Automatic annotation (TrEMBL):
Species this protein is from: Rudanella paleaurantiibacter
Swiss-Prot/TrEMBL keywords: Membrane, Transmembrane, Transmembrane helix
The keyword Transmembrane helix is assigned to this record: yes
Identification of the protein by name: Phage holin family protein
InterPro entries (UniProt xref): Phage_holin_4_2
Nucleus as UniProt keyword: no
Membrane-spanning ranges: 32-52, 59-78, 90-107
Cross-referenced Pfam families: Phage_holin_4_2
Amino acid sequence: MNFILHLLLDAAVIFGLAYVMPQIEVKSFGTAVLIALLLGILNFFVGWLLAFPLNLVTFFLLTGLVRLVVTALLLKLIDKFMDSFTIHGFWPALVIALAVAVAGTLIDRSAPSEPMREAGHVAVLAPGR
């Protein structure tokens, strides 16, 4: 369920930013959903390959910033493969990466998954407090 929320929210963020920013073009919401799906798959399979060497260079001190840059690079890669999605420049891709990261954080805070609760990443309040 959390995966579907993330996917739809990421698609909404991408589609909304395409509406607001003239440097980003997305043909339809279905395209935005496909972009969000590809971004999740690429982040899972390829993102760590890009992030690990960059994290080594920064001595793992800038991990969050490295993740944003890697996500922006993956968005530019998706841009090269899809005709219905265009990003003009690197900065708009970085804005999308930042917006997707913030939206994902808000979803994780408001609807944490069971593994997140068990690991102690999210405080669970007892009812009635």
